[in-house]
Design a protein that fits this description.
Layout (H helix, E strand, L loop, with lengths): L7 E3 L4 E3 L1 H29 L3 E7 L1 H18 L3 E7 L6 H4 L3 E3 L25 H7 L19 H4 L14
Parallel strand pairs: 3-4, 3-5
Antiparallel strand pairs: 1-2
């Protein structure tokens, strides 16, 4: 895009702005000031976020780990409204209006961006009497024939291995 106007008036001794040049100069300075103000606003948002953040998490993870962090965030960033919904199901971020879903396990929905934020070690324990009665499983597949009570999801169970409590670091 061109303005198709004369911006400068030149003589052999001097260069000056035309009336159109003064108008362009005034607009350009205002635009540059707006860019500086925008940069300052963006920088300030990184330091002092504001607006709203709606997130979900499972009941167990939310109560034990996420809610305390949300409480600290609300104190630190009073201009940021944070909603935490604790549900034991996968949420549809777009359809349900969530900005963030914090879960344990592998991402099952294509198109979502996931970030690994922590390691969640799992330990499977059994009473010695139970193992005496049933025998010690040698593999994860052998666990299918046992009566196991677990809160682990299917995705996290697939990563389990069989080892003794001592091997797992449990005293």
């Amino acid at each position: 895009m061109t303005l198709e106007v004369k911006l400068l008036h030149r003589t052999t001794r001097r260069v000056s702005l035309t009336t159109d040049g003064e108008t362009v100069n005034r607009w350009a300075r205002a635009i540059l000031q707006d860019v500086d103000a925008m940069r300052d606003d963006l920088s300030n948002l990184r330091v002092n976020p504001r607006g709203s953040l709606r997130m979900s998490s499972s009941q167990r993870l939310g109560r034990s780990h996420i809610a305390p962090i949300v409480s600290l965030m609300k104190k630190r960033y009073p201009e940021l409204e944070i909603w935490l919904e604790l549900v034991d199901r996968r949420v549809n971020l777009v359809d349900e209006g969530f900005d963030l879903d914090i879960r344990v396990g592998a991402v099952q929905e294509p198109g979502l961006i996931a970030h690994h934020i922590a390691v969640s070690p799992r330990v499977l324990c059994a009473a010695p009497g139970y193992l005496d009665m049933l025998g010690r499983p040698k593999s994860v597949d052998e666990l299918a024939r046992t009566t196991v009570s677990s809160s682990a999801s299917a995705t996290s169970r697939s990563a389990c291995g069989v080892c003794s409590a001592r091997e797992a670091g449990v005293p």
